[in-house]
Amino acid sequence: MIAPVVKNRILDEFGRPVAGKKATPQIQALQRPKRPVEATYDAARDTTDMQNYWANADAYDADSANSKAVRAKLVQRARYEVANNGYADGIVQTHANYVMGTGPSLRMRTRNKNLNAMIEAAWQQWTKAVQLRRKLWCMTHAKVQDGETFGLLRNNPRLRSPVDLDLILIETEQVTSPRIIPYAVGYIDGIRYDEFGNPISYDVLKYHPGGQFAWSGTEFEQIPAKWMLHWFMLRRPGQHRGVPEFRSTLNVGASSRRWREATLAAAETAADYAAIIHTNLTPDGADQVSPLTTVDFDKRMMTALPMGWDVQQMKAEHPGATYEAFHAAQVNEMARPKSIPQNLAMCNSSGYNFASGKLDHGTYFLTIDLERADCEDTVLDPLFDRWFERAILAYGWGFDATLAARHSWDWPHHPIGDPESEANAVDKRLKNGSTTLSQVYAEQGLDFEDHIAEMATDYGLSVDQMRETLRMNQFAIVTQNMANINTATEPELDDDIDDVEEQEDVQAAVKVDLRPTAGMAAAAKTGLRLHKEGRSGKGLKPETVARAGKISRREVLTEDHVREMAAWFARHDKASRSPGWNTKGKEKPGWVAWSLWGGDAAKSWSQAKVRQMDGGE
């Protein structure tokens, strides 16, 4: 059924035509044909002046804009610039130094301090074996220069570490598709992705395409994503490959070198012409001189000019006086993509004052912190997960791999321009409770728990006494005598003692010194060395290794540890008398464990300390 045409467009509240009423002027205005509204921006207009400027603007997506050909050209030019421009070279190196420095340190955050120390020590030993700090610095440099960096995790049986996992660095050109698969969804130049954008595998050429063995073919290996680290700056949604981070200022470096050469050429031109003779007379009024002829001058020589001719020196019309300012502006622009201050980029702070330098560095430090966080997500955390899985098997640790998630990274602290002001600010924050000593040490890339133990050793105090000393110094609180810090665990004193000096003597008597001796430390160090060489056998507990580290550093032991030590030596005393168990070069696992506990010196020492704690001596 065809609906009747309604001429009257005035409707009532039910949508029915209202008959007999004429539209008001307001209604008629609304019924007139609408003119389309065209809102725009100046930058969206195609004016004659700006048409050429915007001619190269495109609508490509991230991966198309960063195609293989585009990336290859940018990488080659970026490397050339860094290799031939001292400022570009210094900028990239300075940034890598500030970001990576001496490398991050692992901090485990489980509730077991001994377990934390054991894992951190094993990680530290592995990082030394694979030269991780050096490789992380190289990855940072390559990420800035080439735009991205790759790290391949592989077995290396020659590593001097129980964990034979190694980190192999490869350049961006080596991760590529040797055979182009047109219209392959989820396949971006050597990297395969699933439907959710997670990388599945990486195609890695056996040889670098620019290397001496590239002629041998395009043989490649497909590496599962679990064993590949890929670090690049994510600038656009849908971006899967990185491009040089100084791509926007590559031409600035080239123009800077052209300006330098032009300035030098102008100076050389002026120097090449010692003098020029000229005349304002007619040809008949001056002596005849052949045009463009030259005359050699000797030092301190006086000569007569032809009649009618004057002499003047050549002047360089090139604006050489603006060279320094132009050059500084160029270098500043070159470093801007990474927020590097001009004084760092030029390695010259002569024109800076403290306030301006601090403001500039604040922006740069923020950039560094963001880049470090990016490194943790894409490099350090995946690397630690793979290492932890291998370490559990290598060391025989009896806990789940999910424990690896309980960790963080301590980075080298940012350089401080005014240490005194910084120290005063930290002191104020500590007193008003806006920070803690753990946070202050973490900002400096240090672990407070490690350092308080070292401080206690240096001052001859226990860790608890050291904490109390710091608390008293920070908050100026008058507390009980230092000898009474651990009264909750020490024997109560006789209430009938009224003389203060006599009471202090009793306190000193019941206080047992549980610091290992030098002989115990030497034995523990020997045990740790033999353990690293693989001579401790398979039955050794991780806690024994962790405690051996404390003994080697002569840290104050707990009463429970000393009692356990005495009981252990009593159980294994018979084995210690077996012949040949400590023969040099053929040490048995039992003797290695004996050394880890502190050796013969610890046997007699622990027995004596137990008697003291029980009040027998």
The overall strand count is: 11
What is the typical, i.e. mean, pLDDT?
A: 80
Helicity level, as a percent range?
Answer: 40-55%
Shape: extended
Weakly predicted, low-confidence segments = 477-510
Could you explain how this protein is built, in words?
Among the domains are: 308 residues, no CATH class; 96 residues, no CATH class. 46% of the residues lie in helices and 8% in strands. The chain is built from 21 helices and eleven strands. Helix 19 packs across helix 21. The chain starts with 24 loop residues before the first helix and ends with a helix. About 6% of the residues have low confidence.
Task: Please write out the topology.
Layout: H1 25-31, H2 48-51, H3 62-65, H4 68-84, H5 86-100, E1 105-108, H6 113-130, H7 132-146, E2 148-155, E3 165-170, E4 187-188, E5 191-193, E6 199-205, E7 220-224, E8 228-232, H8 250-272, E9 276-278, E10 310-312, H9 323-335, H10 342-346, H11 354-395, E11 407-410, H12 419-431, H13 437-443, H14 448-459, H15 463-475, H16 500-510, H17 518-532, H18 542-552, H19 559-571, H20 589-596, H21 599-613
Antiparallel strand pairs: 1-11, 2-3, 2-8, 4-5, 5-6, 6-7, 9-10
